[in-house]
Specification:
Blueprint (H helix, E strand, L loop, with lengths): L1 E8 L2 E10 L3 E3 L5 E6 L11 E3 L11 H18 L22 E4 L6 H10 L4 E5 L3 H13 L6 E4 L6 H6 L8 E8 L13 H11 L3 E12 L5 H13 L6 E7 L8 E8 L5
Parallel strand pairs: 6-7, 6-9, 7-8, 9-10
Antiparallel strand pairs: 1-2, 2-3, 2-4, 4-5, 10-12, 11-12
Length: about 280
């Protein structure tokens, strides 16, 4: 189950996010996410008061997957515990620590189900994850992972490409939905037909549908694998589109190992800023 607690820290209190199993003690599902509250538990402060820790790959540098998970976990934790909750119906309904519904998230490439399960753990019992994949095998694996942890009720599985994201979300009512987090792993599904890949045109279509739906503080994570045919074109198309986003409304960060000799990959993190006062 989702485990959220606060603990003392030098600048106020820290929110720790992870998961535990009854009788098994503490088990982290993501690198520790630490959100500093300045002085009280009334409001989560952003900017320099936000810390992420515990992220280190085996070589001493953070793995791109870990960076992605931390950014997404922070956005969802803020939605779950902050002053405003974003419900599965798309309504903004007050304090998430009470009876308000919880966030909506998107997994644009369900694949083997790892990210879908990760999101399902974090959205809470009243949250909802929309997961997309065109391959029946991928959806079956994802469903198995969710069922193994009793989280299938938190996820809507869509057997369609993420370019149909807008139509799929509209069919669930409450339009427009308000999305707190989205994750994409772009390329091909490991262990499957490598000719079935994400493509620039469908990925950009999904992105264009998604961006207007993101809540302030929401995060889109795009883990781009560029070593396969067409992968470099997809990475370049995303770079061009994201570079054009308004600085006053969005922040875009690109993380990559520039000297990786094979199977190049990069992580693009897109943060929706608060609306101007």
């Amino acid at each position: 189950m989702l485990h959220i607690c606060t603990s003392p820290c030098p600048r106020g209190r820290a929110l720790l996010l992870g998961a535990c199993r009854p009788g098994a003690g503490w088990r982290t599902t993501v690198p520790e996410v630490r959100m500093i509250r300045s002085g009280s538990d009334d409001a989560v402060l952003s900017g320099p008061f936000m810390e992420l820790s515990g992220c280190s790959g085996g070589d001493g540098l953070p793995a791109l997957r870990e960076l992605s998970q931390q950014a997404v976990a922070r956005a969802l934790a803020e939605a779950v515990t902050g002053g405003v909750a974003v419900g599965a119906s798309g309504a903004v309904t007050g304090d998430a620590t009470g009876d308000a519904p919880w966030p909506v998230a998107v997994d644009g490439t369900a694949g083997n189900g790892h990210d879908t399960l990760f999101l399902a753990r974090l959205v809470g019992a009243r949250g909802l994850v929309h997961a997309f994949d065109v391959q029946p095998r991928a959806l079956a694996r994802t469903a198995e992972r969710l069922a193994a942890e009793g989280l299938e009720e938190r996820v809507a599985l869509h057997g369609r490409g993420h370019e149909e994201l807008a139509a799929a979300l509209a069919s669930h009512g409450g339009w427009p939905p308000r999305i707190t987090a989205a994750m994409f792993n772009l390329g091909f599904l490991p262990g499957s037909d490598r000719s079935v890949t994400t493509r620039p045109e469908t990925t950009l279509t999904a992105l264009e549908a998604l961006l207007p739906l993101m809540v302030p503080g929401g995060v889109v994570s795009l883990h781009v694998y560029a070593g396969h045919p067409g992968g470099a074109d997809e990475a370049a198309a995303l770079d061009r589109r994201l570079a054009s986003l308004d600085w006053n409304r969005w922040r875009v960060a690109r993380h990559e190992f520039v000297n990786k000799p094979r199977n190049p990959e990069r992580l693009l993190l897109v943060l929706r800023l608060p609306d101007p006062a």
